[in-house]
Amino acid sequence: MAEIDFPAEIRALRATYDSIAQVSDVDSLRREIAELSEKAGVPDLWDDPAAAQVVTSQLSHRQSELERLTTLAGRIDDLEVLVELGQEAGDEDSLAEAGTELASIRSSLEQLEVVTLLSGEYDEREAVVTIRSGAGGVDAADFAEMLMRMYLRWAERRGYPTKVMDTSYAEEAGIKSATFEVNAPYAFGTLSVEAGTHRLVRISPFDNQGRRQTSFAAVEVIPLIEQTDSIEIPDNEIRVDVFRSSGPGGQSVNTTDSAVRLTHIPTGIVVSMQNEKSQIQNRAAAMRVLQSRLLLLKKEQEDAEKKALAGDIKASWGDQMRSYVLNPYQMVKDLRTNHEVGNTSAVLDGDIDAFIDAGIRWRADSRKTEA
């Protein structure tokens, strides 16, 4: 095993930490925490539960962000002390422990560095993810369900709460579409790099002749609307349809017309919700998602106007951003970043952090090039 140059490695850790702390603006972070703490301490805060939730959520996030920074600074200091003591005493066990801690701190800094790249207008928001099956028949529906499980498992690994809001099951297997929330700070900024067309290549379990099948699914990620957002939708621009919720195979799971479908007439955007217990709850959830989509559409239109002279290329159906190949070999490859992994089972079980991190770095580099 090669000997570690601890002084050089620790200097590198400190340099990386200092650049992250500068971007994070620790002094500003502390001031923001003080202001939010003052708001959270107001006696009548919970007279407006929605506003109170925003304040407490922001406070918790900012405190966690500061704690991560201060904890890492302390770990680097402790590492330096451990190395000095180990070298003075010639203690190989302590130096081996220091080597392990060095790798752990480096990994933590890399993850924190990725967060500093999430500087988009809505990146701090929670996310609403919609997955739709595309070309490929029953295999595509099955693939859409596989992707849904992958993202829910990813969120579970990170301790992020999720809420499935709507699921439209396919007749034979899988899903036609599904919508779910990921309720964690920066969930939108993090998952937005997953938006696009995903492709699966495998021996179809639904083909009696065992032929290889290529199928597609689309992933949409939008920021969750907040109380402070001003997206007013006139009643005459919305068509409301109600229907009965259904489960796999069309089996009725609700005997009342509690499911709601909202159609925004000017844009043609359709949002369905059926997983809440009442029509009122489903309508409220659908309206929130519709507002979120219109908010993102407004931002995209503003960006498109700015890029009109340079041209804005939109990905068309079939222009996949990631391929999941299960046969004739095992490989998941992102076609934007060229990041690839041979352990397809781990990826489909939610181990996608490396793909997300690579995507965030790729997006940041792309924005620099455009600027």
UniProtKB/TrEMBL annotation:
GO cellular component: cytoplasm
Post-translational modification: Methylated by PrmC. Methylation increases the termination efficiency of RF2.
Subcellular location(s) per record: Cytoplasm
Domain (Prokaryotic-type class I peptide chain release factors) ranges: 244-260
Gene3D superfamilies: 3.30.160.20, 3.30.70.1660, Release factor
Chain positions found as N5-methylglutamine: 251
Keyword Protein biosynthesis: yes
Pfam families: PCRF (PF03462), RF-1 (PF00472)
SMART domains xrefs: PCRF
The keyword Signal is annotated on this UniProt entry: no
GO MF, any single term: translation release factor activity, codon specific
Superkingdom classification of source: Bacteria
HAMAP family the record matches: Rel_fac_2
PANTHER family found in the cross-reference section: CLASS I PEPTIDE CHAIN RELEASE FACTOR (PTHR43116:SF3), PEPTIDE CHAIN RELEASE FACTOR 2 (PTHR43116)
The name this protein goes by in its record: Peptide chain release factor 2
Gene that specifies this protein: prfB
